[in-house]
Design goal:
Radius of gyration of chain A: 11 Å
Oligomer: heterodimer
Number of helices of chain B: 5
Keywords (chain A): DNA-binding
Helix content of chain A: 55-70%
Strand content of chain B: under 5%
Number of strands of chain B: 0
Number of helices of chain A: 5
Order of helices and strands of chain A: HHHHH
Radius of gyration of chain B: 23 Å
Shape of chain B: extended
Shape of chain A: globular
Order of helices and strands of chain B: HHHHH
CATH superfamily of chain A: lambda repressor-like DNA-binding domains
Protein name (chain A): Transcriptional regulator
Structural class of chain B: mainly alpha
GO molecular function, one term (chain A): DNA binding
InterPro entries (chain A): Cro/C1-type_HTH (IPR001387), Lambda_DNA-bd_dom_sf (IPR010982)
Pfam family, one (chain A): HTH_3
Amino acid sequence: MPGQKNLRMKAARAAAGLSQSDLAEAVGVTRQTIGLIEAGGYNPTLNLCVAICKTLHVTLNDLFWDEER
Amino acid sequence: MKLQNMKLAQKWREYAGPKDERLETENAKIYKLGFMLLSFGMLTLLVYQIMAQQVAWVHDGAGEAFRLFANPVDAVMYAWLFIVMTVCAVLQTRKGYVDTNRFGQTEHIPTGYFLLISGITGIASALAIAAMRCIAEAQIVPIESVFWGANLETGVVFGVTIFVAVFGALCLAFFEAKQRRAKIEAELDCPDDL
């Protein structure tokens, strides 16, 4: 599976008390898409990144900015 | 009527829910593969059918008029294939590109790349056409009566023609896309937005 796992997104989702299905419904995608983003198997568009961040009340930097890459 | 249609479309969107961008991306890849398989498969069949008919005509039907297609339905089917491929090419150029790699939006015509693509297409077509003619001929006459040399020559003639046609089409698409791109960029640079 290409890409790195997005553990920060998984942690932020858990902290917000949302399941993958809840987050998927909130941002208008399928549960598999959320699962794949967290597993590093799908590179989301900026629109989807923003929607996820707004739902989880975090910033794009919190979830998607990686200093090491 | 239009208002009703809009309401109907809105209700449908509410019912069907939002579209998943990943599924749309995956679907686009699947349809792309399907389009390639379908169009190239049909093109191969079309060439084979024409070659088989022409070979049969050369051997025992020279007194009759040569018919390119077996029936009008075939002709319409292949015309439809040509229309669909043309529509795809025109839509690409209208979006301002001719390819999805780094040569797709260059300012200067990528002659070397276009020659390479045209050359590969021409050589592949020449070999495929020569092979198809030999296969078609071997099915209707004894193997010693097959015109190997003539088939190869025919393949080469078609290959050269296809090479020139593909190169011309690529150049035409490039200049059309470049013009279109300039128009799109001019609209994007609109000073009213500042």
